[in-house]
Amino acid sequence: MGKLLKGKIALVTGGTSGIGLASAKELAEQGAMVFITGRRQSELDAAVSEIGSAATGIRADASVLSDLDAVYAQISKSAGHLDILFANAGGGDMQPLGAITEEHFDRIFGTNVRGVLFTVQKALPLLREGGSVILTGSTTSIQGTESFSVYSASKAAVRNFVRSWALDLKGRGIRVNVVSPGPVRTPGLGGLVPDEHRQGLFDALAAQVPLGRLGEPEEIGKVVAFLASDSASFINGTELFVDGGMAQV
């Protein structure tokens, strides 16, 4: 069986750990040349080493527009175009209503919403007709989650970006989809609570999943590669949940 993405050029933002790193590895395994971004050079270098010769790292913060300009300038010079954009960079932490600060809101929406918007918009001159744009959503966008309202609202915004951008880009044949994971065993998920409470969090979340376990980053990466490929050529504007059934029952 041939590689799904042979000869394709891909960008994964937030590609140094968790879902981003696993997705970048899968895209590379399927034949793509992969550019990844991350904010910390040491983690970026380690991720590039792990992915292999198909990867190029570019230090960038997806919420800083000048960083995005530099990313696309380097891709334009090195590859000339993009076929696949996985706008994955994002994150959040927990604050209950009554304790939410401007800093908390601005930081989460700055990366998860503003950063995603300009990551995609600034990529448009490089994206080839028929390309694939994939955003990272979350089951929290359709569920209430205690102390997680700002993050959840940011992911609901991401979901609507996909609906609207699929229409905006229909003339170029660019597909726009969102992959929405449930609880996945990543550093970001574990970092929501102190180390001593991490296993308790994982166990509590696994108990809410019909399959009885957390997802693994590699499982999300395989879905990202599928959405990026011609195998998903008639999938557009959709939200694909990869959640073990958590938000489906």
Automatic annotation (TrEMBL):
<dbReference type="InterPro" id="IPR020904">
    <property type="entry name" value="Sc_DH/Rdtase_CS"/>
</dbReference>
<dbReference type="GO" id="GO:0047936">
    <property type="term" value="F:glucose 1-dehydrogenase [NAD(P)+] activity"/>
</dbReference>
<dbReference type="InterPro" id="IPR057326">
    <property type="entry name" value="KR_dom"/>
</dbReference>
<keyword id="KW-0560">Oxidoreductase</keyword>
<feature type="domain" description="Ketoreductase">
    <location>
        <begin position="8"/>
        <end position="187"/>
    </location>
</feature>
<comment type="similarity">
    <text>Belongs to the short-chain dehydrogenases/reductases (SDR) family.</text>
</comment>
<protein>
    <submittedName>
        <fullName>Glucose 1-dehydrogenase</fullName>
        <ecNumber>1.1.1.47</ecNumber>
    </submittedName>
</protein>
<dbReference type="InterPro" id="IPR002347">
    <property type="entry name" value="SDR_fam"/>
</dbReference>
<dbReference type="Pfam" id="PF13561">
    <property type="entry name" value="adh_short_C2"/>
</dbReference>
